[in-house]
């Protein structure tokens, strides 16, 4: 129900909407923003850009208050964890950027029904993915080498870890240092503003 509400409320406000969780990240690897990526890869009849996922294993929780986070090193998940699954199979746990005006029904992982004439574009994992942080998880993104990161904790994910291992061997991945530093600085500034620390 919340997804349908999001789709309908954003129809007149946004051309494109990312339907991702707060612990998932879309990261464009090349010197391109997500907006530029969408403009360069999306066609008018694309109602959905669908991204495959990779999971990054996270080995402990992130502090849940700003002061402890600061004392713990002020790191963001993608700076701390790097053990990453291979890309999930097609249509397995995908996430999307959608055009709300083209969508009639939205599910957690993909559009369920488009308006007539709209289509899905399956983004090749060589171009972009979703990085999912799962106290052990991760992914990449489209055309301009984007990354989507989503981080979750290992406890309770044992069965999913076994499934993720069937995608292939986990590997070490990292975000380009210049991108990571800029992102970390931005997050640190915002945390300081919000929590006045």
Automatic annotation (TrEMBL):
It is found in: Membrane. It is a single-pass membrane protein. InterPro entries: Glyco_transf_92 (IPR008166). Its main location: membrane. GO terms for molecular function: glycosyltransferase activity. It comes from the Eukaryota. The keyword Membrane applies. Coiled coil: none annotated. Pfam families: Glyco_transf_92 (PF01697). Its EC number is 2.4.1.-. The keyword Transferase applies. One of its GO terms (cellular component) is membrane. It is an enzyme of class 2 (transferase). Keywords: Glycosyltransferase, Membrane, Transferase, Transmembrane, Transmembrane helix. PANTHER family: DOLICHYL-PHOSPHATE-MANNOSE--PROTEIN MANNOSYLTRANSFERASE-RELATED, GLYCOSYLTRANSFERASE FAMILY 92 PROTEIN. Belongs to the glycosyltransferase 92 family. This is Glycosyltransferase family 92 protein.
């Amino acid at each position: 129900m919340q997804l349908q509400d999001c789709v309908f409320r954003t129809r007149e406000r946004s051309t494109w909407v990312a339907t991702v969780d707060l612990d998932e990240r879309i990261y464009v690897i090349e010197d391109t923003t997500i907006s530029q990526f969408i403009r360069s890869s999306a066609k008018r009849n694309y109602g959905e850009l669908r991204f495959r996922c990779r999971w990054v294993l996270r080995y402990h929780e992130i502090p849940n208050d700003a002061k402890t986070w600061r004392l713990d090193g002020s790191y963001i998940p993608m700076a701390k964890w790097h053990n990453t699954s291979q890309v999930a199979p097609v249509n397995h746990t995908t996430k999307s950027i959608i055009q709300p005006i083209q969508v009639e029904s939205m599910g957690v992982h993909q559009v369920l029904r488009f308006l007539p004439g709209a289509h899905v574009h399956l983004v090749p994992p060589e171009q972009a993915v979703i990085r999912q942080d799962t106290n052990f998880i991760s992914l990449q993104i489209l055309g301009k080498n984007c990354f989507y990161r989503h981080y979750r904790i290992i406890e309770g994910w044992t069965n999913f870890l076994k499934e993720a291992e069937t995608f292939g061997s986990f590997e070490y991945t990292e975000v380009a240092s210049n991108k990571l530093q800029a992102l970390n600085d931005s997050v640190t500034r915002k945390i300081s503003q919000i929590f006045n620390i």
